[in-house]
Amino acid sequence: MTSVCDLTSTELARAIARGELSSREAVEVHLARIADLDTRLAAFVTVDAEGARRAADICDAAPAPIGPLHGVPMGIKDLTDTGGITTTYGSALFRDHVPAEDDLVVARLRRAGAIILGKTNTPEFGFGAVCTNRLCGPTRNPFDPALTSGGSSGGSAVAVAAGMVPLAHGTDFGGSVRTPASFCDVASIRPTPGRIPSPRRPLGWDMLATHGFLARSVDDLELALSVCGGSDAHDPLSAGIVSDDRAIAGRPRIAVTPDFGVAPVARDVRARFASACDELARIADLVPSSPDCGGAIETFRTLRAAHIANNYGDLLRTRRAELTPTVIWNIEAGAKLSAEDYLNAERRRTAIYRSFRELFTRADFLVAPAALVLPWPNEISDVTAIDGAPLQTPIDYLAVTFIVSLVGFPVLTLPARRQVNELPFGIQIIAPPGCESRLFAFGRIIENELGFSHRRPPL
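^ thats the sequence. predicted structure below, dont judge the formating
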């Protein structure tokens, strides 16, 4: 049972296709792992055991593999609709909500043969540094259950790290797949916005939020993206993506920055990042360099607040007493913004984007930490200071990830090598839009040659 739960999704799909085990066996083993660990870790809000068994039996009855993920169990973050499976968005307001149909990303996963075991935990509406809500949590870090798994895809990160599933879906606005990946020693991908379409998104040209994936290997991330990518007529961002599969000629050139020149990075993170860069220097030419990110923190604060107020303002007016304080703060932050505030932020965002583009004329990749801090106790709901220096807002601890969200460049996150007694820590590997294949190819080199890969938690 342990060996099956340690398989990656690519290894598991291969074993099922060869007849070495059935889809039903794979599902049962992973359900048993969830039953054994989830009372301690709280990675899942909902487990759909019977639905997963039915789907596995359909896979096993098929004359040939349904798709590349045939029979592979996975989890879906509970912000994303799953037809016939309760979807709460992490909120008690939706504790009994069962969507009639799947979100497009879930439909594409099912068509590829994936089997949905259940919904992974998230803070209410994805707002929160600790993965907890009034229904479930806190989702505990498998390397130290007293510590946070990160927000807001913490349930998915823990499910993957603990072997409950080999692959999990997440969403990322300001760092919500990358921070949990860093905290839980797994890999993640935040693709170019539009690479995975969101045809139901109310603001069609909004590129701050994307779907993403968490896994224990680069191959798994590439496989998941391959079955979920592709344009959709109802998502205007998805139509304009041009893939760039050109290989890097010779030794890669990497720009490295611990802070983008503006982010308040903890001393221990700076030390861990410096060690990771020493390792990277074995396989690439490193140049300390950063895009001009002046004003990026203020820009993201403004745009994020405006989007949240627009999306959830009605809930604040009608259901305030039922919302968590974190959600209330997030909505209120955008209530007094003017059109001029918003457009000035978009103006600065454009300048930052162009600075990123200019940097990539001189470098193949840009590497930065995947989190400004290491995991902290679950009892502390927000990061209010770093190394004793107070932060202006509760979201500033995400600056090193939300700066990348601001410009919409794809990001691969990998666990950095660490000593046995060290907490997990990850790095972001950033490429120009459309260059996911290039990211995956380089990520495999880092994974295989430098050992930047997942280690099992001491469960």
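Residues 302 and 342 are 7 Å apart (CA to CA).
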